[in-house]
Amino acid sequence: MTDVAIQPRGPAAAIVRTRPGWADDIALAYESGAASQFVLHGNVGDRFQLPSEGKPESGTLADYLAKVLLTRFDVVLSYDLGNGLRIVRGGAVLADWPHFKQDATLPAEPRAAVAWLTQYFRYTANLARLGQRRLQIACILPAAQLLAPATQGWSSYDIAAIALQIRDWASDGLLAGHSLATFLVTEALADLHPLIATNPRAQVTPIPLPGPVELQAAFAQLAAECPTALATWAADLSKPAAALAGTTIAAVDALVRTHEHRRTALTEKDLSAAKKRMVEQDCAGLIEFIDSKRTLDDLAGMTRVKEWLRQDLALWRKDDLQAMPMGYLLCGPVGTGKTFAVECLAGEAGVPVVKLKNFRDKWVGSTEGNLEKIFRLVRALGRCYVFVDEADQALGRRESGGNDGGIGGRIYAMLAQEMSETKNRGRTIWLLASSRPDLIEVDLKRPGRIDIKIPLLPTGTPVESWALIRALCSRRGLELPAEMPAALAEKIPVWLTPGAAEALAVKTYRVHRTANLVPVEALTNCLADWRPPVPLEVMRAQIDLAVNEASDAAFVPPEFRR
């Protein structure tokens, strides 16, 4: 790794290329005078590689900042609610401050600590302005969201005062022109007080999840200590690194050390299971992976739809991404198998499918923080699908009417921005499913966010209904004739969804087992009392909505075309 330390400001300052990229961005902004306050968010709880002459070491983000990025600074201070105010480096320099000579007690209470820091920053800035001494000062605030949390209005004068003083570290003319660098660390940007998070003089820097290159370096660091666990991959550590994309270095470290302690080697199956477990654990129930062994061959009918999807997958595999859609909308009446279709597409594609679960929360800023975490994971996974079921409810609305405190509008804005990010074309593909596509905001389902809209419709003829019922009965060992019996022609319902047909097949099996009837007689018995599970007027309305949404007329079966 090249030298990543921030260079002192001044005429002789040189911009040094750094790794990782976010550290390079910080160095460039500080050395050029563009910014002196940095809000770091995202993967801030991971482990980071530290310089070491002997055995490789890793530490927290605060350790990385102090020992790698800020090595040229004269004084480095740190404050958090748990540990209070600490002198990380430069105690002898700090001892020259007259105020510190009079009282060397470091305050622990938040407002007093921030006031103490502000006073010292102003003292050193005045020294530099008088030409007496120019000191390089840095301050790190881990878990800054606990010090200055996002609040509704100005409910706490102490919090407001703290946020204003921290904001002044970047905005005040005296301090902004001084050799002062401040770092505010928070997992979710939405958790931080808006006075700080939206300060135009502060640079917001996301810390991404590690990519395959960083994970491979972590595996290489562990190889000497854990030879048994990594024995299978000793010749090529890039393979387990690629397999675990989307996880953290801390999680990888724990996985490898656990297997080494057990004296077992990591296998490909272990990596797949571990990735699913670690990612879902890190995301705290916000997402789940869909594992599917199905393919598009399991999707009955829909010839034109399957042809289109397979063409897209062929382009994807060839890295020809210009024609790849940003997203798909699967719409149709309830029970038409929208989730099943997603599973079939996932199995055919062979890429991760991340299903969004309930990411909404009642606490201020928590929902936005959950979305930030999900987006961070999705970007780290590389090529993947993001599946949003019941999209009409999950995606929020531009105008929520104030009934939810504005959370729906904020969700809408964040999702709209992420879904239209052109650099994600061919990497992240959104899959929305809904029986009420009319309730999804028009802007969210426009081309550039959702390019392909596919209607999933019930059967349109008795022959199609018979084929569907016969296939579902066959799965339960009930064999029905290939040709529909003439006696059943008028009894077989049309507008039959896979969900309704599944219920009918289950009932047929039950009658077959309890009444000892042959399959055809059991089905006839069931059809005599069968009633559609969804009122026909509701079914008709949802069919019309799906047909009207279709992005290609060829997706609509002839029976439903007008």
Could you name the key traits of this structure?
single chain; about 550 residues; alpha/beta; Rossmann fold; 6-stranded mixed sheet; 22 helices; 14 strands; about 40% helix; about 10% strand
Kindly report the spatial arrangement of strands forming the biggest sheet: 5-4-6-7-1-8
The level 1 CATH classification of the largest domain is: Alpha Beta
Arithmetic mean of pLDDT: 87
Which bin fits the share of residues in helices? Answer: 40-55%
Largest sheet: 6 strands, mixed
Outline type: elongated
Q: What separation lies between the terminal Cα atoms?
A: 65 Å
Structural class determined from secondary elements: alpha/beta
Strand content: 5-15%
Would you identify the regions where 5 or more consecutive residues have pLDDT less than 50?
11-18
Secondary structure: number of strands: 14
Structure report:
With 562 residues, the protein is an alpha/beta fold. It has 4 domains: 21-207, 3-Layer(aba) Sandwich (Rossmann fold), CATH 3.40.50; 212-280; 296-456, 3-Layer(aba) Sandwich (Rossmann fold); 462-531. Helix content is 42%, strand content 12%. The chain contains 22 helices and 14 strands. The protein has helices spanning 21-31, 61-69, 91-94, 98-102, 110-129, 144-147, 157-171, 173-176, 194-197, 212-223, 238-243, 249-262, 268-282, 303-317, 338-349, 366-381, 391-394, 407-419, 462-474, 498-515, 519-528, 536-549; strands at 37-42, 48-50, 57-59, 75-80, 84-89, 137-141, 180-186, 202-207, 287-289, 327-331, 353-356, 384-388, 428-434, 452-455. The protein has a 6-stranded mixed sheet with strand order 5-4-6-7-1-8, with helices on both faces. Strands 9-11-12-13-10-14 form a 6-stranded mixed sheet, with helices on both faces. Helix 16 (366-381) links the parallel strand 11 and strand 12 (384-388). Helix 19 (462-474) packs across helix 20 (498-515) and helix 20 (498-515) crosses helix 21 (519-528). The relative contact order is 0.08.
